[in-house]
Amino acid sequence: MLPIALTDTWPWYIAGPLIGLFVPLLQLLGDKQLGISGNLRHLCAALLPGRGDFLRYDWKTTGGWNLLFALGTALGGWIGIHLLGTHQIAISPETRAALGALGLHDLSGLVPREIFSWPALLTPRGFVSVVGGGFLVGFGAAYAGGCTSGHAISGLSNFQLHSLFAVLGFFAGGLLATHLLLPLLF
Amino acid sequence: MTHRLFPVLYLLLGALFGIILTKAEVISWFRIQEMFRFQAFHMYGIIGSAIAVAAVTRRLLPRPPAPPTLCGETSPAIDERTGRGTRFWLGGAIFGLGWALTGACPGPLFILLGGGVTVMFAALLSALAGTWAYGCLRSRLPH
Questions:
Q1: For residue A65, what are the contacts with CB-CB under 8 A and spacing of at least 6?
Q2: Residue A133 reports pLDDT greater than 50
Q3: Would you give the DSSP letter of residue B78?
Q4: Does A156 sit within 8 Å of B71, measured CB to CB?
Q5: Which ipTM was obtained for this model?
Q6: CB proximity B121 to A under 8 Å
Q7: Gyration radius of chain B over CA positions
Q8: CB B30 within 8 A of CB A112
């Protein structure tokens, strides 16, 4: 069987630096900057450009590499879950308690199936989390010009001030949703 | 703009990225909840050390870093407006709201889909709708 090192959860001090290395790696190998949210824009540009200037550009040249990268990450997800045994999260006791207080009882798996499943999509909390949340992620990343990989990792490592504003924004929004929205929604 | 890597290598790099984020549980809604509740160090450790390693190693590169871009592209072919900076904290806050709700930013979205959490396809379509909506509203939003 696979060694424990592969099938166990990878600690932050292994995963974090490995993730960070993608910045110089992409820069060195392809003169590219890590930024996954760009793919949402490229997909829109490919499928439904519309009339504005935001989606009218040569998405194949600009974003082809990134779309392949994103496809690769999906493949990586498959490998990580189905081949390398990523199934359960050791959630901290405080978070378990907090989620229990919100009415979540099934804390198994990577995502709570009470919220993230096709049947749950027909419930208010499932719909808002998946569709509402998805919409906000897409809108916000486009508006801010980047997501966690683009602004937090690429941007902050390049000491870009506007990325710091974006990351502070990410956290403000995330805290608001977690502490004010979720209790109302769940 | 040159593709110095064969296309399949971007696919492989992406796969590696996906494996790392999966094994480190970055793709887990539960981990994001822990993060926004300040009840675990894990996500902060990952993001912090990633930034630190990236900051140091990119300085070691033989060529000067690419000029800051907004969507990863290195060609200046896309008109980007930076404006007064409102777009960053406001767009960021909107993104953050969604991030806490879905427990996934764009990377984990694709990764979860690949991993078999098929309902995230609805999240992806919604995210595309959100990006598209921004394109429509762009001229009316403060930047």
A1: A30, A32, B3, B5, B7, B10
A2: yes
A3: S
A4: no
A5: 0.96
A6: no
A7: 17
A8: yes
How many residues are listed for chain A in this entry? Answer: 186
A140 and B82 within 8 Å at the Cβ level: the answer is no
pLDDT confidence band for A49 (50 / 70 / 90): confident
Residue of A19, A37, A99 lying closest to B106 (CB–CB): A37
B75: left (phi over 0), alpha (psi -120 to 50) or beta: beta
- Whether the CB-CB separation of B50 and A17 falls below 8 Å is answered with yes
Using alpha carbons, list the distances in angstroms from residue A43 to A17, A55, B82, B94, B128. Answer: 29, 9, 22, 20, 7
Distance CA A82, CA A102 (A): 30
Q: Which two tokens stand for residue A63?
A: 């974003």
Chain A positions in Cβ-Cβ contact with residue B29 (cut-off 8 Å): 110-112, 115-116
Residues of chain A contacting B6 with CB distance shorter than 8 Å = none
Closest CA to B24 of A183, A10, A143, A40: A10
Q: What are phi and psi of B12, to 5 degrees?
A: -65, -40
Q: What is the rounded average pLDDT of the residues B103-115? A: 98
The minimum CA-CA distance between A173 and chain B, rounded to whole Å, is 4
How many angstroms separate the CA atoms of B92 and B107, rounded?
Answer: 16
Cα–Cα distance list, B124 to A15, A83, A177, B78, B136 (Å)? 25, 24, 19, 23, 18
d(CA B112, CA A77): 6
Q: Which of residues 81-100 of A touch B (CB under 8 A)?
A: 81-82, 84, 86, 89, 91-92, 94-95, 98-99
Q: Which pLDDT belongs to residue B66?
A: 55
Q: Does residue A10 contact residue B23 with C-beta atoms inside 8 Å?
A: yes
Q: List the structure tokens of B135.
A: 């394109």
Q: What pLDDT is stored for residue B62 in this prediction?
A: 79
Answer whether A92's CB lies under 8 Å from B30's CB. Answer: no
Give the domain ranges of chain B.
7-66+83-140
- Residue A181 neighbours by CB distance under 10 Å: 18
Query: What 8-state DSSP symbol labels residue A116?
Result: S
